[in-house]
UniProtKB/TrEMBL annotation:
Name of the protein in its database record: Amidohydrolase
Species of provenance: Streptomyces poriferorum
Lineage of the species this protein comes from: Bacteria, Bacillati, Actinomycetota, Actinomycetes, Kitasatosporales
Pfam families the record matches: Amidohydro_1, HUTI_composite_bact
Start and end residues of each Amidohydrolase-related domain: 64-428
Aminodeoxyfutalosine deaminase/Imidazolonepropionase-like composite domain span: 29-51
Keywords on record: Hydrolase, Metal-binding, Zinc
């Protein structure tokens, strides 16, 4: 019998949910990690015999699964948690989010990004696509990327761009203060940021036109060209609200995704956030061209934006990942909550309890998320895959008894049950803290910056302790 081989880490005794091609679940399994990669997975007894780890973690009572990809978030919104409740998407943007973005300064954005990245690591999120547009100067964008990578996460800072003001933006009432750069300047600044964080970086920079419906079309064309040139994705909000495709169609004679297809801009480099209001032709096109979609069910429910055509997109061949949409539109970056809301939202909209199964939600949060974000070989537990892993405690009363690991993870577990997160073989969260991060000081700093920001943006009315949604209706009745 051969001598055991050395490895860095052995996670043993867990229910290992591999999400591999065979969708293998090992009820008493182990995962061996050496350096940045997974080197073995299988029954615990087999791996104990084959490997001599520098460290062994006893994971009995836990599940080990691939790290989650948050396919669409806004970490800069971490200072805005709990503000803007009860507003539909149009009012939410005009009365809250645009003013928030305008008043945010670089220090605010950096603290918010660090806070959000720590929250993500604690929740088992190993890859983030951070759609960052406030502020979007290169120094801030690169500082945000550094902050995310310093916490230990991988992914992308998708630099939000507006470019030249369009007639649709004018009609939608976007504030002039949002427009700091021309289309050519936006593309040039993004190119600089992309060059500064090359292929060796865990966190890349992607070009990210802010929104297809009111953005400059030349900006979208340029973003797609930049993505192809640098071998990364490009990112945008797409048809989140019902008015988005309508306004684009009225102005340009085509719906947004149909225009992308006609312009040869719809391919595997394109990642579209939300994609709620797609018609049948657009749904088929997204799948046919292999584009990615970030489904954000919690924010879609929070803003009552609608339910994405999940089944149509999946059946058409689209890469459907899951996103939290950040802390500003729903409160938490919790992929367990997102998986569960995916099931409930789709089942409710279709009146079909089998519209989405928990296994599909798990796939979207892990292996499909890695495909969407361009993490080669990621999102699965198998030899050679990146060592992006999550250990989840399943012993709590809210999870017991565990009849099926996948069902327990999607329906019963939550971010607070994560006990360890590894990214690229490095422990980025364990035993209640992120190594090297003073989380208490970070939270205090975030509170201080948030209080200043609320005063600066004059958000006092939005932070009242008790805001009665029926108050306005009662007033209208009393004066009628």
């Amino acid at each position: 019998m051969s001598e055991p081989r050395p490895c860095t880490l052995l996670l043993s005794g867990a229910q290992v949910v591999t999400v591999d091609d065979a969708r293998t679940v090992h009820p008493d399994g182990a995962v061996a990690v050496d350096g940045h990669r997974i080197v073995d997975v299988g029954p615990t007894a087999d791996l104990v015999a084959r490997w001599r780890p520098r460290r062994t973690v006893d994971c009995r009572g836990s599940a080990v699964l691939p790290g989650f990809t948050d396919a669409h978030t806004h970490l800069f919104q971490s200072l805005a948690r709990g503000i803007g409740d009860g507003l539909a998407i149009g009012r939410w943007l005009n009365e809250f989010m645009w003013p928030y973005a305008i008043h945010l300064d670089p220090e605010d954005a950096l603290i918010a990004a660090r806070l959000g990245a720590v929250e993500a690591a604690r929740a088992g999120i190993t890859t983030v696509v951070d759609h960052h547009y406030a502020p979007s100067d290169p120094e801030t964008v690169l500082a945000v990327a550094d902050a995310i990578e310093d916490i230990g996460l991988r992914g992308a800072v998708a630099r939000g761009m507006l470019g030249d003001r369009t007639a649709v933006a004018e009609a939608r009432g976007l504030p002039a203060a949002l427009y700091r750069y021309s289309t050519d300047q936006e593309l040039d600044l993004t190119r600089q940021c992309m060059a500064a964080r090359g292929a060796e970086s865990l966190v890349r920079v992607w070009p990210a036109p802010l929104n297809l419906s009111y953005g400059d079309r030349d900006l979208v064309r340029g973003a797609a060209a930049l993505a192809r040139e640098h071998g990364v994705r490009w990112h945008t909000h797409c048809s989140e609200g019902a008015k988005d495709p309508e306004s684009f169609l009225a102005r340009y004679g085509k719906r947004p995704v149909a225009w992308l297809a006609a312009e040869d801009l719809l391919d595997a480099h394109a990642t579209l956030a939300h994609a709620v209001w797609l018609d049948e032709e657009e749904t088929e096109a997204v799948g046919a061209y292999g584009a990615g979609v970030a489904h954000c069910p919690c924010s879609n429910a929070y803003l009552a934006s609608g339910a994405m055509p999940w089944r149509g997109l999946r059946d058409a061949g689209a890469v459907v990942a899951l996103g939290t949409d950040g802390p500003g539109a729903g409160g938490r970056q919790d992929m367990f909550e997102v998986m569960k809301q995916t099931l409930f939202g789709q089942r409710l909209s279709r009146l079909d309890p089998a519209a989405v199964r928990c296994e599909e939600a798990m796939e979207a949060a892990t292996r499909d998320g890695a495909r969407y974000a361009g993490v080669e070989g990621g999102g699965v537990i198998r030899p050679g895959a990146p060592a992006d892993l999550v250990v989840v405690d399943l012993t709590g009363t809210a999870v017991q008894p565990v009849h099926r690991a996948v069902s327990a993870l999607v329906y019963s577990a939550r971010a607070a049950d994560v006990v360890m997160t590894l990214v690229d073989g490095r422990v980025v969260y364990e035993d209640g803290h992120c190594p090297g991060v003073d989380e208490e000081a970070l939270a205090a700093h975030a509170r201080e910056r948030a209080e200043r920001l609320v005063r600066r943006a004059d958000f006092g009315a939005l932070t009242e302790p008790w805001r009665d949604g029926n108050q306005d209706r009662r007033r209208r009745v009393a004066t009628s």
